[in-house]
């Protein structure tokens, strides 16, 4: 909701800025036109080009410029823009908290582990010089093996950018058995890219020979895909005007490169996104909730530092959910082996400890906090995620 308000306010300021710029340019154009007309009159070779005539032209120019009211028009336009900018600035100060340290909690970090994560992040991004600098300045052991593997990955990526599949094919061939074990069809996708390139830039015979050599082994298990590629042979050198024109889209190269990175990192035992980038992205997403909670607690004269557990849940998008979790809607405790989620007969779910607490006021039954139904412990069933 707050981001929506900020975006709407920004759009209004941007619209006002364009309007102000348009008005200012219009005024400048008017002034330029009058000056050009005056210069043309003064420089025209005729009998009237006398000092008296030139003076009259300049007097007339001054009269016309005064009629345009240059300063007044620019002043009004800029005042309206400044007013909008000031309102936007006030809204930002109201909705955004400039001091994010209020959401920070003192946590003991393993310095060695943090240094390795940062260095690994730079290697993951192909910034090997920065990674080496971090390792050297922190006095950490150099992960030469991992760095050389990431170097190979980025060499493949750079080659793919210029549509050179040879390094990618070499890596896929060397790791073919491992890729098959994880159900990857990366080799087919890479050969498919090259087949389209040959078909568009070479002859039909070249494309057919390539298909017989490299695509035929995949025909039995990828029948539909193989038939589609064979249909492309009818449109050699004019694929852009065929029913298969979508195969020429650069998005296929981008998606295949992205999948190659995923598979490469999987075989390395690494995530395709560095731990540092995941933490920063998740922290940025959860920061507004933490800042809001910090403001609420400040009003109650309590500190976030003193709490062992947050009183609110921090909702993150699905990309940050790496395993199934359950948080009790009553206690806000996360489900665990000692405190598992329990399904009530009314189909609501609570943690086991919450049910025990509800039973303190009753020896046999308890009432569901979310509906009028009553239940006993024997009627509850443990859920497994």
UniProtKB/TrEMBL annotation:
Instruction: Look up the coiled coil feature and give its residue ranges.
Output: none
Q: Is the Cytoplasm keyword given for this protein?
A: yes
A GO BP term, please?
Answer: proteasome-mediated ubiquitin-dependent protein catabolic process
UniProt keyword Ribosomal protein, yes or no: no
Q: Which Pfam families match?
A: CTLH, zf-RING_UBOX
Alphabetical list of InterPro entries matching this protein: CRA_dom, CTLH/CRA, CTLH_C, Fyv10_fam, LisH, Rmd5_dRing, ZF_RING_GID, Znf-RING_euk
A GO CC annotation recorded here is: GID complex
The record's listing under SMART domains reads: CRA, CTLH
Localized where? Cytoplasm
| Keyword annotations of the record | Cytoplasm, Metal-binding, Zinc, Zinc-finger
| Superkingdom of this protein's organism | Eukaryota
Q: Which residues form the RING-Gid-type domain?
A: 328-371
Primary residence:
cytoplasm
Under the GO molecular function aspect, what terms does this record hold? ubiquitin protein ligase activity; zinc ion binding
Which residues belong to any copy of the CTLH domain? 149-206
Q: PANTHER family annotated for this entry?
A: GH10162P (PTHR12170:SF3), MACROPHAGE ERYTHROBLAST ATTACHER-RELATED (PTHR12170)
What protein does this entry describe? Putative transcription factor interactor and regulator LisH family
């Amino acid at each position: 909701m707050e981001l929506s308000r900020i975006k709407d306010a920004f759009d209004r300021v941007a619209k006002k800025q364009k309007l102000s710029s348009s008005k200012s340019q219009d005024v400048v154009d008017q002034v330029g036109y009058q000056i050009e007309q005056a210069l043309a009159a003064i420089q025209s070779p005729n009998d009237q080009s006398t000092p008296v005539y030139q003076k009259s032209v300049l007097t007339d120019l001054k009269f016309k410029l005064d009629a345009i009211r240059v300063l007044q028009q620019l002043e009004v336009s800029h005042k309206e823009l400044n007013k909008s900018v000031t309102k936007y600035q006030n809204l930002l100060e109201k909705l955004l908290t400039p001091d994010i340290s209020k959401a920070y909690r003192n946590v003991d970090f393993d310095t060695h582990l943090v240094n390795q994560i940062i260095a690994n992040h730079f290697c993951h991004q192909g910034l090997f010089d920065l990674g080496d600098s971090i390792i050297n300045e922190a006095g950490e052991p150099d992960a030469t093996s991992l760095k050389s593997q990431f170097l190979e990955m980025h060499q493949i990526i750079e080659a793919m950018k210029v549509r050179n599949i040879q390094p990618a094919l070499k890596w896929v061939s060397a790791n073919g058995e491992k890729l098959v074990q994880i159900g990857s069809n990366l080799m087919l996708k890479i050969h498919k890219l090259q087949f389209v390139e040959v078909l568009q830039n070479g002859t039909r015979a070249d494309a057919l020979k390539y298909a017989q050599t490299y695509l035929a082994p995949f025909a039995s298990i990828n029948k539909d895909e193989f038939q589609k590629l064979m249909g492309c042979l009818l449109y050699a050198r004019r694929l852009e005007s065929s029913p298969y024109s979508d195969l020429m889209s650069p998005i296929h190269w981008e998606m295949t490169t992205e999948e190659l990175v995923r598979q490469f990192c999987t075989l390395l035992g690494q995530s395709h996104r560095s731990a540092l980038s995941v933490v920063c992205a998740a922290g940025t997403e959860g920061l507004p909730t933490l800042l809001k909670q910090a403001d609420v607690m400040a009003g109650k004269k309590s500190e976030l530092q003193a709490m062992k557990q947050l009183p609110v849940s921090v909702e993150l998008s699905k990309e940050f959910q790496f395993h199934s979790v359950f948080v009790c809607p009553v206690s806000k405790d996360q489900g665990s082996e000692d405190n598992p989620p329990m399904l009530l007969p009314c189909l609501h779910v609570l943690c086991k400890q919450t049910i025990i607490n509800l039973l303190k006021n009753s020896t046999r039954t308890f009432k569901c906090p979310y509906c009028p139904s009553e239940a006993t412990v024997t009627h509850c069933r443990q859920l497994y995620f």
